[in-house]
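Protocol step 4 of 5: obtain the predicted structure for the target chain.
Materials: sequence only (see below). No template structures provided, no constraints applied. The aim of this step is simply to have a reference model before the mutagenesis design in step 5. Sequence pasted as it appears in the construct record:
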Amino acid sequence: MNRRRNLLVGVGLVVLLLGLIGQIAWAVERPAQPVANEDIAINEVYYRGVSSADDWIELRNTGTETIDVGNWWFCARFDYERIGLLTIVAGDDFILVPGEILVVRPWTDLDDNASDLALYTDGNFSNPASLVDFVQWGSGGPIGRANVAVSKGIWRELASGVYDFVPTAGNSQSLAWRGINSGGGLLTHSTDWQNGTPTQGQNNEIPALTSTPTATPTATITPTSTSTPTHTSTATPTATTEPQKSLYLPLVTRN
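Step 4 output (structure tokens):
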């Protein structure tokens, strides 16, 4: 009886061990999934309307997963509101499928001269991990959550307490993101944003990169001067006539 019980216990342990090995192997082989929250981006901001009732904020799902932003938050100049309480201007609801755009009416008057706009997954506004996207316009001063965005790594601090910013938009212009990447975890420069004609509910046009042609150096062949040999006349030696030697024989006199 004990032998049978021990056998059953041993079989059970083997099955349990095989199950654990399978789970470990699945966990190792399964690739890490991207954080879907980072795929929601501030796509366009219209803050230069005739009145604040004309202003709007546009979000876009740039990822591959459906995301509910109803419990997310906006923060501008330390004034904040939950997105699910805002009026929808364009879009069906607060659940964004991949590629979908949501346009909402701001809860406050976005400052025409200088403001920031931050997008959070929750109301912990000083926590960089809760911050998803950020933009600031009109001033480089500490007017909002730029320090949190710098800590997150999605905005630049140009000097101590001086932050990157986009110039103020003109009347009836919107501030649109025209970069390649946006959203939490991706560094955005002010030059990734442009002021221009509003395109509510549409994907922003990304300007084509214009490359400046580089002149190809052309080899210039410089003719090499060939020296013409100069004829140097060689003096012909003049024959010198030596005086003819006279042969003098002594006169022998016999006695």
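Step 4 remarks: The longest strand covers residues 40-46. The two ends are 179 Å apart (CA to CA).
Proceed to step 5.
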